[in-house]
Batch of 2 targets.
Target 1
Amino acid sequence: MGSEHRFPVRVYFEDTDLSGVVYHANYLRFMERARSDMLRAAGIDQRGAFESGEGVYAITNLAIRYRAPAKLDDDLLIVSRVMDTKAVSCVIQQRVMRGGLLVAEADVTAAFLSPEGKPRRQPQPWLEAFRRLQGEEETV
Amino acid sequence: MGSEHRFPVRVYFEDTDLSGVVYHANYLRFMERARSDMLRAAGIDQRGAFESGEGVYAITNLAIRYRAPAKLDDDLLIVSRVMDTKAVSCVIQQRVMRGGLLVAEADVTAAFLSPEGKPRRQPQPWLEAFRRLQGEEETV
Amino acid sequence: MGSEHRFPVRVYFEDTDLSGVVYHANYLRFMERARSDMLRAAGIDQRGAFESGEGVYAITNLAIRYRAPAKLDDDLLIVSRVMDTKAVSCVIQQRVMRGGLLVAEADVTAAFLSPEGKPRRQPQPWLEAFRRLQGEEETV
Amino acid sequence: MGSEHRFPVRVYFEDTDLSGVVYHANYLRFMERARSDMLRAAGIDQRGAFESGEGVYAITNLAIRYRAPAKLDDDLLIVSRVMDTKAVSCVIQQRVMRGGLLVAEADVTAAFLSPEGKPRRQPQPWLEAFRRLQGEEETV
């Protein structure tokens, strides 16, 4: 079953472009903030892992569908759900909502990399954290 | 067959993040620059169409695969190819190259929207420009 | 005397560059979020004014001193204070703090512009809101 | 006398905000591109110095005056001039031009920092490069 992580984002001038709505690339920034917040809440210290030379996540695949525009001052909610957890990567589904309206939805694959940029098994406590988020803990 | 549009991008500090490579959302900025340059070269005046109230393009779908990192000072080449042209939208395939190395590749769907945000038939000369880029002119 | 407006900002990957700290231009984004929040809290509806054709603020002068770096995951506080209120512009002093440490400080002048880009007297209720923020209400 | 470095920048959708003009923080990105290009042309390898652990530049002070708006598709020219060169820092004056029109002008102070973030004497060949840019070589 898993659980959903919810992260609020306000739209500021920096996020819009001259067409009056949020610039398409900026949703990726919103979604990364939400993923980082989800990881932090799950006890995953990305900065510590980076500074100690353990590694860092990199996005390997991302597919996004834009459904409705968002505008200045909008209160958005980024809803994230872990869909799959493998040794070196995980898949996260993310929806950008404004009230009950779906603004955008994406499937994001992130892989853990060594400082040299090679795929590396995620730290064991992190794997367990992702599996808890995914809702698999009872099946193991 | 169609033709490829080639657009150079240099990587600056603004494009990188603390992991030392280009932040994943910034490739979308690079690819948008390349599409805008391709349109300008094809005689499509996006600013004029926006200011006259004719309309503006919005991205509706984007799927990107990240294959290799890019770093500060890298000379990248964005290679764009129109794959499909419909009345209100078109599909563009874009590859980010560093020399012979594929850094990222994406499929991007853009739709033309009225100032109210409704899908609108692309201006006829623009449709013809996209079809020329796509290489269909000889088949009509 | 006036009052200080306090606005929290978390540092995400998007904000950093390869040197490992927040990219210098991104503090301007943080400070603009704080100013927009301060205006919203004071009852100033920037989006409404823009959409109704009344006008929009533009920065005319900005001076920033960078005092200490900020890093991924840092919890920053943007402290803003209105220093001067004129008919068409106001001056806001902003400090970026991490706990008791001063990260950056800036003086920002914003002018109200008509849709044609000409300086325009700020709406009267907004002027009064700025003067309340500045702490001049008792002196008038 | 010194020499001016000239760097062209095109305005894209990513650079604008809903008010229809370039977002104020984005001029700092344009100016950083120009400085990096000036350094590269002068033989200064910022990426090499960073990767070898020698150090990296950080902005310590920046004052910018915005004089005229810039819009989508504008061809801007960033004109940079080294004004002062000290052991650990230098001052660069930068103007953003559109044809003969001054769009923005800034004074920027950059300091060289060790990987630990401490001010460090700039590498001797870089100091000499800055002095050549500044036009002091004939006076020494």
Target 2
Amino acid sequence: MPTVAASALHIRSLDPFDFLERSAAVYRTKIALIDGDARRTYPELLERVKRLASALQTRGISSGERVAVLSPNVSAALEATYAVPLAGGVLCALNTRLSPGEIDYILDHCGASLLIYDIELEALVGRLQTRLPAIRAGAGGDYEAHLAGADPVALVRREIDEDDTISINYTSGTTGRPKGVMYTYRGVYLNALAEIFHANLRPESVYLWTLPMFHCNGWCFPWAVSAAGATHVCLRKVEATGILAAIENLGVTHFCAAPTVLVSLCNAPGIRPFPRPINVTTAGAPPAPTTIAQIETLGATIDHVYGLTETYGPITECAWQSPQWDGGGEPERARLKSRQGVPMMTLGARDVRVVDTQLRDVAADGQTPGEIVMRGNNVMKGYYRDPEATAAAFAGGYFHSGDVAVQHPDGYIEIVDRAKDVIISGGENISTVHVERVLIEHPAVLECAVVAVPDDRWGEVPKAFVTLKAGAVLTADELRAFARERIAAFKVPKHVEFGDLPKTSTGKVQKAVLREREWGTRTRRVN
Amino acid sequence: MPTVAASALHIRSLDPFDFLERSAAVYRTKIALIDGDARRTYPELLERVKRLASALQTRGISSGERVAVLSPNVSAALEATYAVPLAGGVLCALNTRLSPGEIDYILDHCGASLLIYDIELEALVGRLQTRLPAIRAGAGGDYEAHLAGADPVALVRREIDEDDTISINYTSGTTGRPKGVMYTYRGVYLNALAEIFHANLRPESVYLWTLPMFHCNGWCFPWAVSAAGATHVCLRKVEATGILAAIENLGVTHFCAAPTVLVSLCNAPGIRPFPRPINVTTAGAPPAPTTIAQIETLGATIDHVYGLTETYGPITECAWQSPQWDGGGEPERARLKSRQGVPMMTLGARDVRVVDTQLRDVAADGQTPGEIVMRGNNVMKGYYRDPEATAAAFAGGYFHSGDVAVQHPDGYIEIVDRAKDVIISGGENISTVHVERVLIEHPAVLECAVVAVPDDRWGEVPKAFVTLKAGAVLTADELRAFARERIAAFKVPKHVEFGDLPKTSTGKVQKAVLREREWGTRTRRVN
């Protein structure tokens, strides 16, 4: 196991703050950040970060104190991402769509000393039980006054150990209480370098903040974009109109988004081809080939990655194979890209595996399901204040994802389903992802989610929740007939319900919510 | 100072072998290497590396033994770069243009247990005093038999510490005996990631091996190219004909070369524009703006970097500033690019500085000279078996480059001269780099070197050694008249001599050789 000798002149702790400081030294007039009407150069951004860090130290943050951030993707959120660790604190970015009770739980669990929040979320904060010292960003808040009053020169920079915790990211807690995933300086630094390569971020890139920064620290893009010397474009609301306006007017070249965001973008009124090639990194749920094909038709190139909160966001990438994949048309291209792929560049070849319950590799036949497990620098340090959950998650020396996948003969991993989403109907396993992909091929379907519902005869059967495109008409029987032509009869949803789907803030469909509604007090099998 | 906790599941030692192993898992049919008629895929390259490593273990290499390699840029050299550390050994790649006495000195100093050499260098090896077990690569050698007879499964992989020494690279020893510069696994890994970004290596890139792999381990490109999943193109002889043929026929997109190689390329008979854009990384000596302009006119984009053996090759890059630099024509573009620039992406903003003798920053006025000093992960661990020289080199906590530079108001560093090359004439400092840049603007001049020669009146005066272009005619007086119009009289070379220039294997002009010839037994000042 590795050790790095202390006090050696040739070793510098991997610290992602260095990325910002270097870009401020190198790109002295470049726009680092666009937020509404504000344009800030790299030196200006650095200055604001140092002022915020100094203000945080004045408020008692200096060595490991947790600072919670509750904010949409605005300038203050990016500044806090750098300033909290720079002050010596640990960043806890909170999902803005959580309930007051959930936020109270997290604030209590992480033991936050201070809350930085956007004034837009005043009502939510007012409903919290927890009372914390706070800094309020946005019009009418005291954030700018704190910056103006701070002395950046008084800032005390602590020597860091690269294995120190830089941030704690709470899981969405679909199964039980949210858990606090600890990221390290080293992990963030290396993941950022990998993201730069895979997303092909360049100094001239313009990155649009569609992905919430509170989600896995924005997949480490706050650090990756600054390291590349590219431009951050903030986005207060993740809506098709705002995204398309930024693409049209601000030179956007890159963004990240969950597949559902892509679906809404492709189906936005008046959608037209992008004015320049755009690199779109997608993850959060397995994207349907149909979705990939639709967004690429607009002029995007999809980079499909996969990961979890516990893996700093992305840990695999569906690397494109040139020239052998170049010949196919868009449907074939989209099918190939819909797989979760291979370990990212800073991972070892065996750091992501598909295994059976004995941690043995499953056959790479594209058929045999197993669990995806991971290890290495792209995997969390552990769950904060939860050694039992940490030990359980790392059983056997690998982190257990809970995702069921097959490995294809070419080594590419493809997710079959979340372990808890798999439907077991009359002894047959049904991948809900597979059924959804068939349903979404129907031209009237905008999006859908398939979950297990109780059935007296089969134990479980699939039920489809379907959102239709605006103006489209479709009956349950028509959709079932469409599916019957394409998949085995036992996989065809026995029930179909039309309407909106419940989603998390990051656009993931909340199948647990749908299932709860269907199962009520009945007990489902435990995975 | 950093420490990394041992035996943690989320920490994996940074090991550049992982890059190759991952690419072999991801790119199973891609050509990793072209060497003459041979084409090898990534899995084939990995298999050969494992076989060589296993063969090395059979020969007793397992834990820290030094393995010397004496080879042009052929397949065996690349394979040894991976296989020696994989076996547990330390790689010592030797400059093939050294004299037998110099090689004997290095083999003795590093205590090599084994020599891998290319059969083309049989005569040189025959003239060595040192007798070592050897493996001979190339037609008629036993290298392929070793590979065929080895058992890759028997290979024992050692746990590495990322601060272990992966290679020792000997300095050219222009001032005294060569010193053994120790690179670490961590340093190589991080430098490779930085090179990927700065050279913009992509999976579809094709990298031509013009830069010798024995020079700073090829600036870490053996690892960077494999990490990107790009293709290595070997090149036995660094000659314009072979380089141009590879560019024409093999889809080359990238190469690295010292400015003198670029000069010979631009002046090669029948030179014509490249068939595709080529990214050329140059370093080794300050490139004249004229040279940059000439190669860019052919369709290359110059990435000017700067470093030393002690900094894994490049440590700064002349980062392009867009849009403010975009408007100028080629002369202005070349002038901007001829500066050594700013710290590379994995460096901290203050890891490369220009300082006075008290380690204080010199004024960033483009005028005040100081010494370039460096620190951090991109700086060597130390000189092998030479703690005194190591301590001296790191005096004050920074590595001392011996290069004199100014820092411009925009933060960019520009080398004035090597400390020992600076001419002090009648109390005035003369930058030989500056004088050379003026001389090379003359249309008849192919290349030139200016050195200090003794002068009874002024102490030292500049003397120019000049190589003319084929067929060009020029007298010393004409050249001096040309110079007098452009620089101060005291900087104009008092003496001019026409002829070829002595060069190192990496294309650096050996000014020390020229000076020695002029000074003979006379003592010059000591810097």
